[in-house]
Amino acid sequence: MTTVGGVRRSFPDGALARCFPCLSDPARRSSLGLKVTLVMLHLIFVGFLFLFDDDLIEKTKNEPWYIGLYLLLLFATLVQYFITSSSSPGYVVDVMRVVNETDAIHQKSSVASKQLASSRNGSLIVSVEGSQSGRNFQGSNPSSWTKLVMSMYPPGTSVRSCTCSYCNVEQPPRAKHCHDCDKCVLQFDHHCVWLGTCVGRDNHCKFWWYICEETALCLWTGILYIMFLKSNISRAWWKDGIMIILLVVLSISILFLLLLLLFHSYLVLTNQTTYELVRRRRIPYLRRIPERVFPFSKGVCRNLSDFCCVRSSIYSFESLPSPEEVEEKSRPYTCLDVLTCRCC
User: Fold this and answer.
1) What is the pTM of this model?
2) What are phi and psi of 129, to 5 degrees?
3) What is the rounded CA–CA span in Å between residue 172 and residue 164?
4) How is residue 91 annotated by DSSP?
5) Helix axes of 26-52 and 204-231: crossing angle, nearest 10 degrees
6) What percent of the chain clears pLDDT 90, i.e. is strictly above it?
7) Residues involved in catalysis
8) Sign of torsion, CA 324 330 336 340?
9) Band of the pLDDT at 315, cuts 50, 70, 90?
10) What b/e readout covers 14-37, taking b as 16+ CB neighbours within 10 angstroms?
11) 290 and 281 Cβ atoms separated by less than 8 Å
């Protein structure tokens, strides 16, 4: 609203949205604000370092490779952040649509081949294909997605118990509905506020690499701050005060990032998610499994391989372990197990 000649004039409500379409959605505005804030924090911590530290500027001239590596890590960290924040965690509805469409294509190709063979024998086969939208309504034939999901659960499991009450889609094991994204996420870990998206099956590896790079960058920056304070402690007090305040904030961030990195490394090695670890007793298919047993773990090496390598097949979901598998995984380790690398 503005005042022109004593008369108040208000701008149209959609003027800002027309000029900046990305700001029309409150969630996108919040996500964009967080991204700008994170970039500004990086620039502030690095900028004050180059602004106050004359020795660092001199070192840049004498050893450009050292500062070049530091700035390269800064750039790589920011790039990894934006890659992770813009990546999909793996939404159930997207994979379900692909599964149903792929099965429909296979059915059409098989029907066409049968029609060709039948026409040669003087007969004709007519196939009426039902609608395969994203949802499975009562009374309709089960979709390919429904059959695939139900094959991952123990026999006798009802479809209703595996159906999300918000999305009305069948959830495979380890999937959960995110209320922030309003979608079901495969292998749901948590919803990251700083990223503005969920961390799930398809972007958990990207998220791990981001916090790894962020931790390394903060450690390197903290070392540069300490080196500055040690060599410039007798100079202008206000510079030291600013650098000490920034170093305290940086130290808290380093502690948080280190704990987060160790925690997610543990999750990767045991093939767990944050949601499964925190809410284990509230997840129906995990209640019957002992606390110290990791039902989806395939060994450290296989877990790392599955986590780091890109999943090329959308059918590579993890079924619930059978009682025999749970009993085998709950068996205590012996010396022979250690020698034969049972944990790997």
Assistant:
1) 0.81
2) -95, 125
3) 10
4) B
5) 30
6) 36
7) 192
8) positive
9) low
10) eeeeeeeeeeeeeeeeebeebbee
11) no
